[in-house]
C-alpha cells in the first residue's frame, strides 16, 4: 500500500489535532522551564559572590515547580488522548475481523486472529501510550538542550553535534533488524496461540485419544521457535545498549579536554563550562533514553504493521453500494455460481443456478460432502463466490448487507453455535428486540419450549461457552427458534432436524412446510430423502452441479438421477 505504520498511526491521531496541540504546548513550556534551571546552577557561584543567592534560589524554585506542574498537565492530556485513539483502533480492528469472509478467517485460524486482535493491539497500545510519551519528552528536551548549548558555546556544541551521526545511525540500523525480528516473534506467538486454542477446543478428543503429551509437545515446539527468536532479539538489544553507552562516554571525555583548553585560552568562563557540562550531561541522558526506547518503538511498529494489514483487508472487502430496499420480498436467485476452497483445486460448486420464489419450499438433496453446507454459506454471503452472482429481490448480495435485509434471511446452520448467555438472549439474538412471549412462541414452534421449561431457570438458564451445557438436539432446537423468532422472509435450513427427537422433528417440519403457505421462501438443504419429499420442488446437487427434478417423487424412482447417485456410493436416510 506504500503507507508506513507510523503514517497510519498519525492518521489515527488526526481527529485529536487540538488535544495534540495542547500536549505540544504544555510539553514545550515544561521543557523550557527545565532547561532554564541548569543555567542558574552553573552560575550559582557568581551569584553567591554577588550576594544575590536568594533571588537565584527563588528563580530556580519557581521554574522547577512550574515545569513540574505543566509536565503533569501534559501527561494527563496525553494519556487521555492516546486512550481515545487506541480505543478507536481496537474497535476498528474488531469490527474489521467481523466483516471478514469466513474463508479468510478459517485460513488464518481462530488462534492467530485472537492473538492479533488482543495481543498485537495491546502491544501497540503499551508502546504508544508509554514509550512514545517518553520519546517525545526526551526529544523535546534534547532539542532545547542542544539549542542552549550552541548559545553557550558554539564550538563545544559543534563537537557534540559531530558525534551525533555515530550515536544515531548505529541504533537506527539495529532498530531495522529488531523490527523484522519482532514481526517474526508476533507470527510465532500467533502460531503458538493457534495450537493452544485448537487443543483446548478439542480437549475431549485429545483426552479420549490419550494424546496430552503430543499436544503439549506441539505447543512447546512453537514456543521454542519463539524463544529462539527472542534470544536473538535480546542479544541484538544488549549490543545496542553497549555500543551507545561506549560512544557517549568517549564524547564526555573529549568535551572535558577541549573545554579545559577553551577556558585556558579565555574563550569561555569556568561558569559557562560548568553550565555547558551540566547541559551536555542532560543531553547525553536524553540521547541515551532516546536510543534505549527507540528500538522498543520500532518493535511496537512491527506489531502495529500486522494490525494495519487487518484494516487494509477491511477496505478490500468493503461493501458495494447497492440500493437497500425497505421491503424484502424473498426472491432468491443464484446465477452460475462457482466456488472452490483454497485448499482444493477441484471446485465444489460448478455453475450452480437456482431460483427460490416467495411461498416456495425448495429442497436441495445431496449425499454427504457434496457441498450442501458450502452452498448455504454462499447464499448467506459468508463466503464470496469465485464467479457468478447471488441475488435477493434482483439485487446482488454484497459481502456486508444492510441489517434490515440480513434479519429477513434467517439460517439454521448444520452445527448451530450458541453464545455464552441465557436461552432467552440466544433466541432473541441480533438487532431488534423480542418479548418473552415472542421468544416462547418461537421456542414452541421449534420444539424447544418443553425442554427449556424443565430447566430450573427456564429461559434464563445460561448455556455455557458455545452452548456446551446443552445437548446437540437442544442446541439445534434453540437455533431453529432463533431463526423463527424474527419471522424471516427467507428461511435457509441446513439439515435442520438431524439431531431432533421425533416429536420436535414433526413440529419443525410443520413449521417449515406451513410457513411456505404464509408466503415465506424456504431453502431446505438436506440429505434426508423423506424430508425432501415433502417440498414443492426438489433439486439434486451432484458433482458440483444442481439439477432440478420434475417432482419430489422422482427422488425415489428407480433409474432417476438421484437413485443412480445413491447407487454410486452415497448414503441416505
Ligand atoms: N472450510 C473448508 N475448507 C476446505 N474444504 C472444505 C471446507 N468445508 C468443506 N470443505 C470440503 O468441501 C466439500 C463439501 O463440504 P460441505 O460441508 O459443503 O458438504 P455437505 O454436503 O454439507 O456435507 P454433509 O452432508 O456431511 O453436511 C467437502 O469435500 C469438504 O471436504
Ligand atoms: Mg453439510
UniProtKB/TrEMBL annotation:
It is a multi-pass membrane protein. The chain crosses the membrane at residues 21-42, 54-74, 131-150. Gene3D superfamilies: ABC transporter type 1, transmembrane domain, P-loop containing nucleotide triphosphate hydrolases. Keywords: ATP-binding, Membrane, Nucleotide-binding, Transmembrane, Transmembrane helix. Residues 21-299 form the ABC transmembrane type-1 domain. It is found in: Membrane. InterPro entries: AAA+_ATPase, ABC1_TM_dom, ABC1_TM_sf, ABC_transporter-like_ATP-bd, ABC_transporter-like_CS, P-loop_NTPase, Type_1_exporter. Residues 332-568 form the ABC transporter domain. GO terms for cellular component: membrane. One of its GO terms (molecular function) is ATP hydrolysis activity. This is Transporter 1, ATP binding cassette subfamily B member. It comes from Aquila chrysaetos chrysaetos.
Amino acid at each position: 500500500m506504500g503507507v508506513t505504520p507510523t503514517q497510519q498511526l498519525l492518521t489515527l491521531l488526526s481527529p485529536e489535532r487540538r488535544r495534540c496541540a495542547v500536549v505540544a504546548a504544555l510539553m514545550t513550556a515544561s521543557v523550557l522551564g527545565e532547561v532554564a534551571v541548569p543555567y542558574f546552577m552553573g552560575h550559582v557561584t557568581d551569584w553567591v559572590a554577588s550576594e544575590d543567592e536568594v533571588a537565584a534560589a527563588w528563580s530556580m524554585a519557581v521554574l522547577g515547580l512550574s515545569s513540574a506542574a505543566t509536565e503533569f498537565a501534559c501527561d494527563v492530556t496525553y494519556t487521555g488522548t492516546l486512550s481515545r485513539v487506541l480505543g478507536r483502533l481496537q474497535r476498528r480492528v474488531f469490527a474489521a475481523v467481523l466483516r471478514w469472509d469466513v474463508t479468510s478467517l478459517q485460513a488464518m485460524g481462530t488462534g492467530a486472529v485472537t492473538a492479533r486482535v488482543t495481543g498485537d493491539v495491546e502491544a501497540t497500545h503499551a508502546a504508544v501510550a508509554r514509550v512514545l510519551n517518553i520519546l517525545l519528552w526526551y526529544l523535546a528536551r534534547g532539542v532545547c538542550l542542544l539549542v542552549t548549548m550552541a548559545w553557550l558555546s558554539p564550538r563545544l556544541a559543534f563537537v557534540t553535534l559531530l558525534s551525533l551521526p555515530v550515536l544515531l545511525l548505529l541504533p537506527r540500523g539495529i532498530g531495522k533488524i529488531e523490527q523484522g525480528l519482532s514481526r517474526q516473534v508476533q507470527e510465532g506467538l500467533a502460531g503458538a496461540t493457534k495450537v493452544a486454542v485448537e487443543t483446548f477446543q478439542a480437549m475431549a478428543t485429545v483426552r479420549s485419544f490419550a494424546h496430552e503429551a503430543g499436544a503439549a509437545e506441539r505447543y512447546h515446539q512453537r514456543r521454542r521457535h519463539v524463544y529462539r527468536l527472542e534470544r536473538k532479539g535480546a542479544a541484538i538489544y544488549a549490543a545496542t545498549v553497549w555500543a551507545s553507552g561506549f560512544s557517549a562516554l568517549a564524547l564526555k571525555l573529549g568535551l572535558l579536554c577541549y573545554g579545559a583548553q577553551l577556558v585556558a585560552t579565555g574563550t569561555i568562563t569556568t561558569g559557562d563550562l560548568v553550565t555547558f557540562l551540566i547541559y551536555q550531561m542532560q543531553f547525553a541522558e536524553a540521547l541515551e533514553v532516546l536510543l534505549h526506547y527507540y528500538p522498543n518503538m520500532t518493535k511496537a511498529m512491527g506489531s502495529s504493521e500486522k494490525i494495519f494489514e487487518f484494516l487494509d483487508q477491511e477496505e478490500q472487502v468493503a461493501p458495494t453500494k447497492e440500493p437497500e430496499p425497505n421491503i424484502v420480498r424473498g426472491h432468491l436467485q443464484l446465477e452460475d455460481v462457482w466456488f472452490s476452497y483454497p485448499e482444493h483445486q477441484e471446485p465444489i460448486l460448478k455453475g450452480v443456478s437456482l431460483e427460490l420464489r416467495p411461498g416456495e419450499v425448495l429442497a436441495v438433496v445431496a449425499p454427504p460432502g457434496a457441498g450442501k453446507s458450502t452452498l448455504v454459506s454462499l447464499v448467506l454471503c459468508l463466503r464470496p463466490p469465485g464467479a457468478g452472482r447471488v441475488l435477493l429481490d434482483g439485487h446482488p448480495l454484497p459481502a456486508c448487507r444492510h441489517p434490515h435485509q440480513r434479519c429477513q434471511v434467517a439460517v439454521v446452520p448444520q452445527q448451530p453455535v450458541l453464545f455464552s448467555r441465557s436461552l432467552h438472549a440466544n433466541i432473541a439474538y441480533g438487532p431488534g428486540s423480542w418479548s418473552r412471549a415472542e421468544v416462547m412462541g418461537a421456542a414452541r414452534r421449534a420444539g424447544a419450549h418443553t425442554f427449556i421449561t424443565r430447566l430450573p431457570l427456564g429461559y434464563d438458564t445460561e448455556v455455557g461457552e458455545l452452548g456446551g451445557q446443552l445437548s446437540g438436539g437442544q442446541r439445534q432446537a434453540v437455533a431453529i427458534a432463533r431463526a423463527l423468532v424474527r419471522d424471516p422472509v427467507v428461511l435457509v435450513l441446513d439439515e435442520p432436524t438431524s439431531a431432533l427427537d421425533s416429536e420436535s422433528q414433526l413440529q419443525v417440519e410443520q413449521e417449515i412446510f406451513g410457513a411456505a403457505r404464509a408466503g415465506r421462501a424456504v431453502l431446505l438443504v438436506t440429505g434426508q430423502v423423506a424430508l425432501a419429499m415433502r417440498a414443492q420442488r426438489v433439486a439434486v446437487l451432484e458433482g458440483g452441479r444442481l439439477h432440478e427434478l420434475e417432482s419430489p417423487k422422482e427422488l425415489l424412482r428407480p433409474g432417476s438421477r438421484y437413485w443412480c447417485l445413491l447407487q454410486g456410493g452415497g448414503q441416505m436416510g
